[in-house]
Amino acid sequence: MQSVIRLSFPLTIALAFGATGASAQDASQAAQVGRILASPAFKAAAAQIDREHDRIVDEGIKLTEIPAPPFHEETRAREFQKMMQAAGLQDVKIDEEGNVLALRKGTHGDGKVVVVSAHLDTVFPAGTDVKVKRQGTRLLAPGVGDDTMSLSVLLAYVRAMQAANIKTRDDILFVATVGEEGPGDLRGVRHLFTKGQYKGRIKSFFSIESGSVAGITNGGVGSKRYRVTFSGPGGHSFGAFGLVNPMYALGQASTEFSRIQVAASPKTTYSIGLIGGGTSVNSIPLSGWMEVDMRSESPADLKRVEDRMLRIMQEAAEGENFARSTKEGKITVESKLIGDRPAGSTDVNTELVQFAKAAVEAGGYRVAYQWSSTDSNLPMSLGIPAITIGRSAPDRSGRSHSLDEWVDVEKGPMVKAVTTSLSMVLAVTGME
Ligand SMILES: [Zn+2]
Is the dihedral of CA 303, 308, 309, 314 positive or negative? Predict the structure, then answer.
C-alpha cells in the first residue's frame, strides 16, 4: 500500500502495461475461439449436437435410471463404456479404481493428455427411486443433473467431433470418474492423478458439472470430515447414576464447536451433519458419535479449524471425566478422518481459464468465477490447471443432492450451452 502512494506515477505505468498485456492475451484467446466458432468443422459439430438433442436427453435418462451410489458405480460405468465405444472411440477401458477412460488421439503425439470428465456417482444410497419424471421440458430425478446429464454430454462431444472429423493438437482423455461425492472422497480422480497409467501425463483438466455454462469454477474449496466417537463404561441410568456419560461429552463438544470464529473471506465453514449412539433410554450409553464437516478456501484456515475441533473433542472428554465418576472407566475420544479434499485454485490468467472465459463470452454469457468442491480440487492441489464448468444454460438446473433434483432440457438453450462448453474444450486442446 505504501509503495502505491509513493510510486504512484511508475505504478500507473506498470498498471497500464499490465492491463495492455492482459487484454492482448484476452484478445488472442478470444480470436482463437472466434476462429473455431467460425470454422466449418465446428459448425458441423454444432449441427450434429442440434440434430441429436433428443438422443442426448434420452441417454441422460437411461444413465440416470442406472443407480450409482457411492462405491457402486460399476453398472453405470459398464453402460457408459459401451456408449463411448458406440460413439466411435476404440480405446475405452475401466481402470483399477472404476473410472471409465476413453482416449481420442490428437495430432501432436507428445504423450500428454487433456482430461474432460464428469462423475458417475450420485449422493443417493442404493434403493433410491431414480426413475426420471418429465414435466414439460423439465426432467426430475435424483442425480439427473449432478452429474448424469454431463455423462451424456461427454458422449455428445465425442459424436459431434467424430461426425465433423475434428482434429485436435492434444490427445483428449474423456473420463467418467467414480467417487466424486462426499464418501467417495475424490477416489476416482485421485487414482487418475496419483496412480493410474496417465499419472504425470495430464496437462490440464476439465470437470463438467450441472451448473450454468457461464460459471467457471477455478477455486477448489478444501474440506476435512471426521467421525468423532466418545466412548465410556456405560451402565444403568438409575443404578449407575453418577458415572461419566459420553453423551454429555458429545453435547459439550458440539456447543464448543459451534462457537468457533471463522473469517467470511477466505470463506471458511463448519457443521455437524450426523449424530448418533446410545444403548437404550434407560442406559448410560457406551458411546456417542458425530460426523463433522469443515471447509475453507484457504488451506491454512482449514487447518486452524481442524486443529481447534480436535482440541475441543479432547477437552470435552477430559471435562466429562472431571465432572463425574470414572470408577468404572473413563471417557475416551477417537477422531477419525473420513474425508480429505485438498484446497487449490487455478489462476484466472492461465490459458485454460482465459480460453474458457473467451468461449463463455463468445456464447453471449457473462462469466462468473466460482469456488466449489469438485473433482478439480485434486489437480488444483497438485498445481495442474483445472476448472469445473457447467453444461446448462443459466438457471436451467437445480436442487442438486435432493430428491427433487431437476434439469431443464429445452432444446435451444441446452444445445447452445453444450456447444459453448465444447468450444472451450476445442480451444484448449488446439482444434486444427
Ligand atoms: Zn457433481
Answer: positive
pTM of the shown model? 0.85
Residue positions counted in the chain? 432
Cell of 143: 442425480
CB 392 within 8 Å of CB 210: yes
Calculate Rg over the CA atoms of the chain. 25
Cell digits of residue 79: 453402460
Q: What is the pLDDT of residue 22?
A: 53
Q: What are the beta bridge partners of residue 275?
A: 290
Q: What cell was used for 242?
A: 453418577
pLDDT in tens, 141-160: 999 999 999 999 999 999 99
How far is Cα 295 from Cα 136, in angstroms, rounded to an integer? 38
Distance, CA of 356 to CA of 344 (rounded, Å): 18
Q: Which residues of 344-369 are buried (b: 16+ CB within 10 A; e: fewer)?
A: bbbeeeeebbbbbbbbbbbbebebee
Cα 291 to Cα 416: distance, rounded to the nearest angstrom: 42
Question: How many angstroms is it from 69 CA to the middle of ligand 1?
Answer: 13
Match 443459466 to its residue by C-alpha cell.
394
CA of 398 to the centre of ligand 1 (A): 12
Q: What is the C-alpha to C-alpha distance for residues 245 and 232, in angstroms, rounded to an integer?
A: 7
Contacts of 43 (CB under 8 A, 6+ apart): none
d(CA 303, CA 117): 29
Q: Cα of 12 to ligand 1 centre, how many Å? A: 43
> How many whole angstroms from 208 Cα to the centroid of ligand 1?
8
Cell of 200: 504425470
